[in-house]
Amino acid sequence: MKIWIDADACPKAIKEHIFKTSQRLNIPVVLVANSNMKIPSSPLFSIVVVEKNPDEADKFILQNAQIGDIAISADI
What we know:
Blueprint: E1 3-6, H1 12-25, E2 29-33, E3 45-49, H2 56-64, E4 70-72
Parallel strand pairs: 1-2, 1-4, 2-3
């Protein structure tokens, strides 16, 4: 299982809560955003930077998420 986050729209407080929970439960988190952003240093956390087109982060998540993953987005 992975947690996928449309990071452009996700509030900082929510991302911080997800990072803490992820570490406690040992669940990888992938942030998908239009620009690079600072994330805590951990092998569980990664970021994917996509083009700045509308819904590009959502499209990437849809194409890469698997059954059992969790997707967090304000759009879909």
